[in-house]
Design goal:
Blueprint: E1 4-7, H1 13-24, E2 28-33, H2 40-46, E3 50-54, H3 60-74, E4 79-82, E5 88-89, H4 97-124, E6 128-133, H5 146-166, E7 171-178, E8 191-192, H6 203-212, H7 224-236, E9 243-246, H8 248-267, H9 269-274, H10 285-294
Parallel strand pairs: 1-2, 1-4, 2-3, 4-6, 5-8, 6-7, 7-9
Helix pairs in contact: 1-7, 3-4, 4-5
Length: 297
């Protein structure tokens, strides 16, 4: 069965791979990009299968107009993919106010606004899928990427809540958490803050030297074409998986981070219980299970 997809950030990276593979298998794609000319070759090859819109996702009014026009023109959109984003590198102190605002607007606010713009359409048509391209950077954190991590941890928190809100309307949500992949994320598409000498010899300066080529690059096991194929396969499943951890590095890092977090939590169990009010009665196991279900666990 062919589907219709709406994808942001299709000029390169995962968005480009998704668009290419979907068109090749016969699906329709509503593709947005800041540079529409980057899709000229696909438009020439696939004709009416490809619907295009020039879009800077940080322009909320333009984003809503693009979404409304795509649903009006195409009738039904089965899968919405929030993919647009970029990396901002540098110690928090090295970043400008404008860089911080732009990173949050692109990676976090735009994804939230895309969800808000598409949800009414998906509800009215009886359901659909929403795929958020997040990052393993939403589970772990590294120095010199604090603002990037703020957006990725933020969008994961948003969807932990919003997915439960949309589930009664047959709208499934999947968070995609790739590791380091062979895209231009750490090169042409990234932004660096102005270096401060105080950070030169620390981890922030080390990452800067890696990005500039003065040190060997980080291992990049992720194949973007395979990652795109895994995302497409997830949409073909009857029930949407809530998380897709993609890449051997992503799996290893997430496993270590979650185990360390759980160990630290369990070490504080006695202290946590000691702060309860004296007249508080511990809920029955069944009540605790209901609470965990409400939290999506």
């Amino acid at each position: 069965m062919t589907r219709t997809w709406f994808i942001t950030g299709t000029s390169s990276g995962f968005g480009r791979h998704l668009t290419e593979q979907l068109l090749a298998r016969g699906d329709r794609v509503a593709a947005t990009a800041r540079r529409l000319e980057s899709l000229d070759d696909l438009a020439a090859r696939h004709g009416g299968q490809l619907w295009r819109s020039r879009l800077d996702v940080t322009d909320t009014s333009a984003l809503r107009e693009s979404v409304d026009r795509a649903f009006a023109d195409l009738g039904r959109i089965d899968v919405v993919v929030s993919n647009a984003g970029y990396g901002l590198f540098g110690a928090a102190e090295e970043l400008t106010d404008e860089q911080i605002d732009r990173q949050i607007a692109t990676n976090l606010t735009a994804s939230i606004q895309l969800a808000r713009a598409t949800a009414p359409h998906l509800r009215r048509q009886g359901g659909g899928r929403y795929i958020q391209v997040a990052s393993i950077g939403g589970q772990v954190a590294f120095p010199a990427m604090s603002l990037y991590h703020a957006t990725k941890w933020g969008i994961e928190g948003f969807w932990e809540s919003a997915a439960a809100e949309l589930a009664p309307f047959n709208i499934g949500v999947t968070l995609v958490e790739p590791g380091v992949a062979r895209t231009n994320f750490g090169a042409a598409s990234s932004v660096l803050g102005a270096p401060l000498p105080e950070y030169a010899d620390g981890p922030s300066g080390q990452l800067r030297r890696i990005l500039s080529g003065d040190l060997p690059p980080l291992p990049a096991p992720g194949d973007p074409a395979k990652i795109a194929a895994a995302i497409i396969t997830s949409a073909d499943q009857a029930e949407a998986p809530f998380r897709l951890t993609l890449g051997s590095d992503a799996y290893a890092m997430a496993t270590a981070a979650l185990r360390n977090r759980l160990n630290a939590l369990e070490a504080g169990q006695e202290l946590a219980h000691s702060t309860d009010a004296d007249d508080f009665t511990t809920p029955a196991p069944a009540d605790l299970a209901d609470l965990a279900d409400l939290a999506g666990n």
